[in-house]
Amino acid sequence: MPQFSRCLLALPLTCIAALLSACGSSSDSSSDTVQAAAPLATAATILQLDDGTLPADDAQQFALPSFHMAPLLLDAPADAAAGDAAPTTVHTQTVPSGFRRLDSRRLTVDALRQVQANRSLSADTDTSSATPLATATTVATYTPAQIRAAYGLPTLPTSYTGLSATQAAQLGAGQTIYIVDAQHNPNVAAELSAFNTKFGLPACTTKTIASNASLPLATASGTGCELAIVYSTSTGGMTSTAPAYDAGWATEIALDVQWAHATAPLARIVLIEANSASYDNLLGGVRLANNMGPGIVSMSFGGSESSGTSAADSVFSGANMTYLAATGDSGAGVAWPSVSAKVLAVGGTTLTYSGGTRSEVVWSSTGGGVSQYVATPAYQSTVVPGMGTATRRTVADVAFNADPNSGQYVAVIASGSSTVKWTSVGGTSLSTPQWAGLIAIANALRAVNGKAALAAPHAALYTNVATVAGTYASTFADITKGSHGTCAACGGETGYDQATGLGTPNASALLSTLSGLTVQTAPVVTAATISGKAGTALSFTASVTASNAVTYALTGAPSGMGISSAGVVSWAAPVAGTYSVTVTAKDSVNGLSGQGVYSVVIAAAGSSSTTNTKTSSTPPVITATALTGVVGKALSGTVGIKISNSGTVNISITGAPLGMMFAASGMNVVVSWATPVAGSYQLKVTATDSTGASASAVIPVTISKR
Description:
The protein is α/β, with parallel strands linked by helices. It is 17% helix and 31% strand. It is built from eleven helices and 41 strands.
């Protein structure tokens, strides 16, 4: 009798991981002449679904917005029309002496008004001709046209009607940018309108999304900008109740929306306002974005990482979703969520630009550093220039202008006022929505070229771009000067550095590269926990997603354990204990490797099960309908799992025909069969939650002839 391995896969909440066959080889291609049903797999398929819930202490941590505002109110900028060239002179303005002791971190117009009411302010001698950043008393502020010119973004047209598909794509048409922030800004639409009018940007139509609207959303417009504002719940739903106003978060919302739009003027913007800045509520905003459909999630906030924050990584795994987060504005250090290996971490620079010449140094307050907990991702390999051997996940990944003293215009309407005030804002929260806009444009251009969205862009940026010398030099400005702390790795360096990552974009070349490349990715090995008993042969198949055939290696394995060329790990005579075994999969074509750690728990012979047998008042609910299909035509379906408590749920599936595959997607099991064989089958699905409560259901599968 042949031995069939037991397949076990631990998968995150919103990630569609590698499809796992029903513990056997794929079935032969079927045809009209097929008469017999496909043979059944002889072992259960085991899946572990994870709802991405943070530990209680982490869930109640609070993040902070990552912006700085220069301590002054700006003169109103000159009006610009659509297609106007960038002003040749950068506006500079002296900080009033009464404001010079103010901390720019999360400074607001409300705070400036309060200080102004309490003090008699006077300005120093005019220093408007001084070089930007020459002294702390002078602030330089850039318009959208100047930023576009400095970074090489496509020139804005004189009219936004009648554009070709490629011209519209260069402005982000058809893409969605989700801005996730906390609290409420009641004036965001009015602020954006003032910003657009002042700088000749296309107006955004305000769209209402009902709190009970069916999701996902319809595809974004391919011809015009839309702005929608929704309020999220911690579970990823919508509510009609607006969060409370907060001046700091309102400023963050204003700059995020305005500069995402300035970068990708025809992209749809969905502002998601969470009820509070707790990690739990902000993750609810990201969950809602995942539910709304493919797009780019911009998170201009950060807080402390911990050993538990990686539990939320599954939330950053949505299909065709890109996640970006600010690295922080307090100098060298790591912030969550940017430290997640699934999130593009955006750092900051100080920009100097004057009519064609761009130079940058590390912004002294940008975040960045080495995680205490997150393992080194495959894309941060030694072949990346300047990367060296990373001990753990290192941020930033990329950068953009972020210094409030080389700031960018933001229109702000303070609480209780209808008057627009102009401010000079920076921070890595300014860098982040602009990179979100760049990714939106790249995805729009890829769609025109018939290519899939980038989704997680790390592999493209690190592997396809940074490791190719000529490509790297043309697509990124390598920031080699300045520092954000006193540590040995705090300065700008040739190639990668923790303050600015790979550098800042040369947008024209970068977008051209990203729009056409086929991304070379490293294999992804999905970690899992494997259970067995001493003396009873153990066998499981490593879960690997790869573009090409892979070779396997096993490290940290106990004596007698090995891995086959097919990725089957076996141990003939297990010994009681707990073991951490690392499976390495190496792509046979591009040479990239990925690793995953399997925790192998072997109970003593004769011992009782260690499964938590605490009963739950409400067992899991399995929802599915009968599956029907025809021979040779790909079959797919979904089994939904609902649990009354947060945590994980183990799924066992028996009765599957060979070739049928299963994968976790959130709290669902996706069923697929590429080449169905005629016959009738019954899938028995058993779901067991973390309390030990379980439920079962039988799902009929009928495959008819053509």
